[in-house]
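Progress note, project year one: complex with guanosine-5',3'-tetraphosphate.
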Amino acid sequence: MHPQILIMTELIKEIEKRKTFGIISHPDAGKTTLTEKLLLFGGAIQEAGAVKSNKIKKGATSDFMEIERQRGISVATSVLAFNYKNHKINILDTPGHKDFAEDTYRTLTAVDSVIVVIDVAKGVEEQTEKLVQVCRMRKMPMIVFINKLDREGKDAFDLLDEVEQKLGLKVVPLSLPIGMGSDFQGIYNIWERNIQLFLEEKKQKVGETMKFDDVQSSDIDEIIGEKAANTLREELELVHSVYPEFNRDEYINGNLQPVFFGSALNNFGVRELLDAFIEIAPMPQPKQADTRIVKPQEEKFSGFVFKIHANMDPKHRDRLAFVKIVSGIFKKNENYLLVRENKNMKFSSPNAFFADKKEVVEKSFPGDIVGLHDTGNFRIGDTLTAGEKLNFKGIPSFSPEHFRYINNADPLKAKQLAKGIDQLMDEGVAQLFTLEMNGRKIIGTVGALQYEVIQYRLEHEYGAKCHYENIAIHKACWLEADEKSEEFKEFARLKQRFLARDKYGQLVFLADSPFTISMTQEKFPNVKLRFISEI
Ligand code: G4P
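Model obtained:
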C-alpha cells in the first residue's frame, strides 16, 4: 500500500478507537470514586485508592499552600487514559472546587462528551447546575450517573424530574434502581434488559446478572420478591409511557441525556455505564476555527492549549502546556507553528498521559492530550498547527467575582513583577485588566484564594513582591460596540474611569454595581455588555 494511504488508515483507525470525556459533579458526589472504578475496569490500576484525589479537601480553604500542593497532584491526574474493549479512553480531570471553576470550563472545551455525577440524596447541587449549563450551551453529549444508591436518597422519578427542571435536560433512564438504601436490591438495566443484584452481605461485591427479556416473568418475583417485582413493572411502564425512546443521534446532538443509577463506591452499575458509554459516546469531533471547521481525519496536525500547569519546583520555571489534538498525527521532533506568535517550535519530549504515569511518546492522535514542556511561550487558547494559520475558538473567560489593584512592593523588581504577572495570567490563574486611563493593573479572580496564590508564586518563582488594594468593582463586561459611533463615544466619555483592556487587548467595562449595569444597558442600547468572552 502507498505510505500515504497507510498513514490515513492508521489515523482513521485510531480516531475511531478514542473517546475523550470529562466527569463533572458538585464536590463529594463521587467523581473521584467513579473515575477510579472506571480505571479498574480498564486494568489501568490494580487496586482501589490508587488514584490520588486532586480534590481540595474541606477545611483546606484557608491554607493556600495545601491547595497548591494538592493542585500539584492534579498534574498527575489531569488526564487519565486507559484501554477498554478496544477503545482508548481519555478522562480529563475537572477540579470540583469552585475557586478553580474556570479551569473546569476550559477543560470542557477539550472533551467530546461528559458524564454528570449526582448524589442520590443531595440531588442537583449548585456546581452541577453551573457546569451543566456550560455543557448545554455547547450542545455537549451528556450521560447522567446517579450515585450512592446504597444510601437512602430521593425517589428515582423525583430525581429525574429534578434533573430535567434544574438542569434543563431531557432525560431518558437507561437503568432503574430496585429499592434504595437498606432495601436496595440491584438495578434493572433497561438498555440490556437484565437485572444485576446487589449483594449487601458481601459489600463491595457485585451479584449475579440475570437477563430478562420479559419483565412479566415470575422468576423476577422469586428473585427480588413479589412487591419489588410489581413496583419494578409499574415503574418500567411509567418509563415507557413518560420518557422518549433512547436515540443516539439526539444524545450526540445534546438534545437527550441517558441516565444510569449505581453506586461507584460499591462498583455497582459502573460496568453498565462504561459499556453503554463506549457504545454511544462520540469519537473525537470536528472543531470550529476562525477560518473553517477542522476535522479529526485531516492529515495535518492541529491542536490547542486548554491548560497550562506550572511545575511545582520553583527553581525551574518550567511549565507543562496541555494540548488537545484536533486533527492529524502529532509527532515528536516535528516542526509546528504556534500561530499567535508565528513561531516554529519542535518538541523533543512530548508527554502522553496514562492512568498512573506520563511518558514521552513518538505520536499522538486526535482526541489525545499531549503535555508539552514550555518555558513561557504558550498561553491558554493558543493554536498549534502543521503550518496553517488558523485559530481555534471557544476558550471562555467569565467575569471574575473579585477585583483588586496589584501594586509593586519592590521598585527594583518591576521587571520581574511584570513578567510574573504576565506568565501567571497565561496560565489562567486569574485575569488581568489594565485601566485605559492610567495603566494601573487590576487582578480579577473567581475565588479570593487566588490572591494569596499569586502573591506567593510571584515572590517564590519570580522574586517579585506585590501588594493589593481594594477596588469596588462588581463585574467585568466585555464590550461589543461600534467604537466610532457617537453613542459609544458618549459612553466612553462618561465611563472613562472604568474602561480597561484585558490580556488580549479587548475593551472591558468594569461596572461597579448591578445598578450601573442596568442603567448602562438602558442608556446605551447599542453598547452591548457581555459577561463571557470567548477567545
Ligand atoms: P468527588 O470526587 O466528587 O468530590 O467525590 P469522591 O469520589 O471523593 O466521594 C466523596 C465521598 O463519597 C467519599 O467519602 C466516597 O467514599 C463517597 N462515595 C462515593 N461513591 C459512593 C457510593 O456509591 N456510596 C456511598 N455510600 N458513598 C460513596 P468520604 O468519606 O468523603 O471520603 P473517603 O474517606 O471515603 O475517601
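The radius of gyration is 25 Å.
The chain has a mean pLDDT of 87.
No further modelling is planned for this target in the current period.
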